[in-house]
């Protein structure tokens, strides 16, 4: 299928991804898992959750392999790879800003629709817990699809609170309540936080925790973005030319800032996020500054959690 692993598409802590072709000619991406927690928990998580989905903004699983220690997942092939390759200005691998602002906005709406489906459209609610640019794949038309469900949790729709023994997520996208329960209970609202951070990265063209910035005030960048929204300041967006582009960019920023509110109940549901993105800018207010955003944080002060991102939302 992969011609002896001749075409590697990418790699991560979980293993490597190769391009493959089925006997019917369909192109696929084959992910081989090198390491697995416990008794293959991440692999089982991924198969159990993604096999329950069918949505234009969720990557399709065509099959899997589970033979002794060999574990592989076979996905639909996504021509444009992952979102991170397009959004960071200073990354060597970035092909950034080939994306028009209208395309960026459509990607933001598509991801929101995918999360809304996971939270409300499935028979069983799925909380992803790892929403970040690396886990958003883009097809040939730049339609976004949510991928990598290794950290996902399934829960009954009536359940809003999720119990977890340990934190899970990727630094920079983890909701506060996942690190410290004093901020609130872990729920699908945690995915909303991760989504908000990711969209802010798309708008700003930089990672939300960036050791290369010279001014400490810019290290935790939501604080910097709030300063740009102060009265009298003209928020300038990279590559914005027309008024329509400026409106789309500002709408993405305001919605994102609502999504990263410190208290989970203050964040909108993904249904509401879609409504705000598709509604008029005149109906959006600048949200209150999250308490975390008022603090200057440096990377070494961030909780040393690896893995993947946050949970999700419904109001």
From TrEMBL:
Keywords: ATP-binding, Glycoprotein, Kinase, Membrane, Nucleotide-binding, Serine/threonine-protein kinase, Signal, Transferase, Transmembrane, Transmembrane helix. It is a single-pass type I membrane protein. Residues 306-315 have a biased composition (Low complexity). Pfam families: Pkinase (PF00069). Its main location: membrane. ATP binds at residue 31. Residues 288-315 are annotated as: Disordered. It comes from the Eukaryota. GO terms for molecular function: ATP binding; protein serine/threonine kinase activity. SUPFAM superfamilies: Protein kinase-like (PK-like) (SSF56112). Residues 292-305 have a biased composition (Polar residues). Residues 3-284 form the Protein kinase domain. It is found in: Membrane. InterPro entries: Kinase-like_dom_sf (IPR011009), LRK10/LRL21-25-like (IPR045874), Prot_kinase_dom (IPR000719), Protein_kinase_ATP_BS (IPR017441), Ser/Thr_kinase_AS (IPR008271). GO terms for cellular component: membrane. Belongs to the protein kinase superfamily. This is Protein kinase domain-containing protein. It comes from Dipteronia sinensis. The lineage of its organism: Eukaryota, Viridiplantae, Streptophyta, Embryophyta, Tracheophyta.
């Amino acid at each position: 299928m992969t011609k002896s692993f001749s075409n590697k598409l990418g790699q991560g802590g979980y293993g490597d991804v190769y391009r493959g072709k089925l006997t019917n000619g369909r192109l696929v991406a084959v992910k081989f898992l090198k390491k697995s927690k416990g008794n293959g928990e991440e692999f089982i998580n991924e198969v159990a959750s993604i096999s329950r989905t069918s949505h234009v903004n969720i990557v399709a699983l065509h099959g899997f392999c589970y033979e002794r220690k060999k574990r592989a997942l076979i996905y639909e092939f996504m021509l444009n790879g992952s979102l991170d390759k397009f959004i960071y200005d200073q990354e060597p691998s970035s092909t950034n800003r080939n994306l028009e602002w209208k395309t960026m906005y459509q990607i933001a709406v598509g991801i929101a629709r995918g999360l809304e489906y996971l939270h409300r459209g499935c028979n069983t609610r799925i909380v992803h817990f790892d929403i970040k640019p690396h886990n958003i794949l883009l097809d040939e038309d730049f339609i976004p699809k949510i991928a990598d469900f290794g950290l996902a949790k399934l829960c009954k729709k009536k359940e809003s609170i999720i119990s977890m023994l340990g934190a899970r997520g990727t630094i920079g996208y983890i909701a506060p309540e996942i690190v410290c329960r004093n901020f609130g209970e872990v729920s699908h609202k945690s995915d909303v936080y991760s989504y908000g951070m990711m969209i802010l990265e798309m708008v700003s063209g930089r990672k939300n925790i960036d050791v290369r910035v010279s001014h400490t005030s810019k290290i935790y960048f939501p604080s910097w973005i709030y300063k740009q929204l102060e009265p009298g300041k003209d928020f300038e967006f990279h590559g914005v030319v027309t008024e329509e582009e400026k409106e789309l960019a500002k709408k993405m920023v305001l919605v994102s800032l609502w999504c990263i509110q410190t208290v989970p109940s203050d964040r909108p549901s993904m249904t509401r996020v879609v409504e705000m993105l598709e509604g008029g800018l005149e109906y959006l207010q600048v949200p209150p500054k999250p308490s975390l955003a008022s603090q200057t944080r440096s990377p070494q002060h961030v909780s040393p959690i690896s893995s993947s991102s946050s949970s999700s939302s419904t109001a």
